[in-house]
TrEMBL record:
<comment type="similarity">
    <text>Belongs to the glycosyltransferase 2 family.</text>
</comment>
<feature type="transmembrane region" description="Helical">
    <location>
        <begin position="276"/>
        <end position="300"/>
    </location>
</feature>
<feature type="transmembrane region" description="Helical">
    <location>
        <begin position="306"/>
        <end position="327"/>
    </location>
</feature>
<feature type="domain" description="Glycosyltransferase 2-like">
    <location>
        <begin position="26"/>
        <end position="196"/>
    </location>
</feature>
<feature type="domain" description="GtrA/DPMS transmembrane">
    <location>
        <begin position="282"/>
        <end position="394"/>
    </location>
</feature>
<feature type="region of interest" description="Disordered">
    <location>
        <begin position="1"/>
        <end position="24"/>
    </location>
</feature>
<protein>
    <submittedName>
        <fullName>Glycosyltransferase involved in cell wall bisynthesis</fullName>
    </submittedName>
</protein>
Length: 398
């Protein structure tokens, strides 16, 4: 990737109208084979940009002469226009890489990103930028899924269904970050340059905005509704392959944390000793929990006369509560992160998943003639290491 980026030329100044003030806004338009669309886009967009003190920056990955079409069409444009053409060997990151590269060269305090195929009506894009620059926010999203927004311009019901399903999936995957965002994968959005750390971003494919939002949890976000129009000419570059790239992008965004945590194993000898101490403490707590568990199971099984599997399930809830109190307050008191309910949910989830594994084994042991209490204790002890590692490396990973 780095090699490819080194090979990228600097943006070429195509048009610098006399007396144009330094831009406040950089409009980035990524293009890939849009030769027929750019003259229409420039004709409608450029006049709207003058009052916004904007410059236009095309980042082009085309082989159909889009770059020449841009150069020809911007001849009389009232705003500054630059063009960055990436040769075939330097097209790292596809659409996302192009937008990021454009952002690195932006001169405005604000950046607006929009498509070249007129699916983002220039009037809506200009309004969005104007609204963004008037407010004390960091990111403004053009949404099709709120207010008067609409996806009418998406080609066909299949694409509409995919878009809304993907949006729901992504919102479920990042519930907190995207709680107030209705269109996290919009291609029309603006951001304040100073609020975004471009070095943190590593977009893959089409979903640049999603990458930006997930990597900047503190950014202040607002939305402006717009109606997506049909593509003017040519074809969408979305493809099955882009779909697969999208899934890879998602797993990278989501998987990063879990994998990062597990990899962050103790490195120094002192860390190893500390982990060993935690394991011993965890073992002692576990032993006390086993006493609670066994006593509870005895109660449910003998005087209360419940079935032993039901008894084991109930006993596990009691001993899990006991263990959680001790583990959370004694062993990980100083390193625990997240809210108490969040930690409790994960703790109980783990123990109940393990319970599901234990029950069949318990049943088999009882069937083989082992006493209920002993068989239950044996299944608890067998999972000690799993329980410790998941707690230490995931639930309470500092
Ligand atoms: N530089 C560059 N490199 N530009 C690209 C590339 C690329 O590899 N791929 C596509 N583009 C440009 C197109 O030329 C167009 O200007 C814009 O990016 C959007 O591409 P389309 O092919 O028209 O995408 P779409 O309409 O299917 O998807 C749009 O809507 C989605 C939401 O429904 C995009 O805005 C997506 O980002 C958005 O998620
Ligand atoms: Mn499009």
């Amino acid at each position: 990737q780095a090699v490819g980026e080194d090979a990228v030329p600097e943006p070429r100044e195509l048009r610098a109208p006399d007396g144009a003030p330094p831009p406040r806004l950089t409009v980035i338009v990524p293009t890939r084979d849009e030769a027929e669309n750019v003259p229409v886009l420039l004709g409608r967009l450029a006049p709207l940009l003058t009052p916004l003190r904007a410059e236009l920056l095309f980042v082009d990955d085309s082989d159909d002469g889009t770059d020449q079409a841009i150069a020809a069409a911007c001849a009389g444009a009232p705003v500054p226009v630059r063009l960055l053409h990436r040769p075939p060997e330097a097209r790292a990151g596809g659409l996302g890489g192009a937008v990021l590269l454009g952002a690195r060269h932006a001169r405005g305090e604000w950046v607006l990103v929009m498509d070249a195929d007129l699916q983002h009506p220039p009037e809506s894009a200009a309004t969005l930028a104007a609204v963004a620059m008037r407010h004390d926010v960091d990111v403004v999203i053009g949404t099709r899924y709120a207010g008067r927004g609409s996806t009418a311009g998406l080609d066909g019901p299949l694409r509409e269904a995919t878009s809304s399903a993907a949006t729901r999936l992504v919102k479920a995957m990042f519930p907190r970050r995207l709680a107030t965002v209705s269109d996290p994968m919009s291609g029309l959005f603006a951001f304040r340059r100073a609020a975004v750390r471009l070095d943190r971003m590593n977009p893959l494919g089409f979903k640049v905005l999603l990458e930006l939002l997930v990597r900047h949890p503190g950014a202040r976000v607002a939305e402006v509704a717009y109606e997506m129009a049909p593509r003017h000419e040519g074809r969408s570059k979305a493809s099955l392959r882009e779909g697969v790239t999208f899934l890879r992008h998602l797993s990278r965004l989501r998987g990063r944390r879990l994998v990062g945590q597990i990899r962050r194993r103790p490195r120094t000898p002192a860390d190893r000793v500390r982990q060993l101490v935690r394991m011993v403490c965890f073992g002692l707590v576990g032993l006390s929990g086993m006493v609670v568990n066994t006593a509870a199971l005895w109660f449910f099984y003998e005087p209360a006369r419940l079935h032993h599997l039901l008894g084991a399930a109930l006993a596990t809830q009691l001993s899990t509560s006991w263990n959680f109190l001790l583990v959370d307050n004694l062993i990980y008191r100083r390193t625990r992160v997240g809210s108490l309910p969040a930690r409790a949910v994960r703790f109980f989830l783990l123990n109940n998943v393990l319970l599901l594994l234990r029950l069949p084994v318990l049943q088999a042991l009882v069937f083989a003639g082992v006493g209920v209490l002993v068989a239950n204790a044996a299944t608890l002890a067998a999972l000690f290491l799993v329980r410790f590692l998941v707690n230490d490396q995931v639930i309470y990973a500092a």
